[in-house]
Amino acid sequence: MIVRMTAKGLLSIPLEILRKFGMKEGTRVHVDVNKRGYKIILTPVTREYIQRLRGKYKGKGLLKALVAEKKRAVA
Question: How far is CA 33 from CA 20, 22, 40, 47, 52, in A?
């Protein structure tokens, strides 16, 4: 499916796709580029998306690193 970009860089996602993924006004969309760098990947950040991420980063120390970074930014 091909859509046209506006002068301001906005894209319209067809209604059938919005409905298929349960997207509504205000739905956040994660934008990424594939490893080879030639495809843009749009992923709606829905409740199901968040549930699939549970445990993915377990044990990687990300929370501690984030807290330390925030403390440095405040100081």
Answer: 22, 22, 5, 22, 20
Q: Please check the confidence at residue 65 and state whether its pLDDT lies above 70.
A: yes
Q: How far is CA 30 from the centre of its chain?
A: 1
Residue spans of the domains in the chain: they are 15-74
Per the confidence metrics, is the pTM higher than 0.70? no
Strand partners, 41: 32
- CA–CA distance, 71 with 61 (Å, rounded to integer): 16
Res 36 pLDDT > 80 = yes
Can you tell me which residue has the tokens 């739905």? Answer: 27
Confidence class of residue 54 from pLDDT cuts 50, 70 and 90?
confident
- Write b or e for each residue in 53-65: b if 16 or more Cβ atoms lie within 10 A of its Cβ, otherwise e: eeeeeeeeeeeee
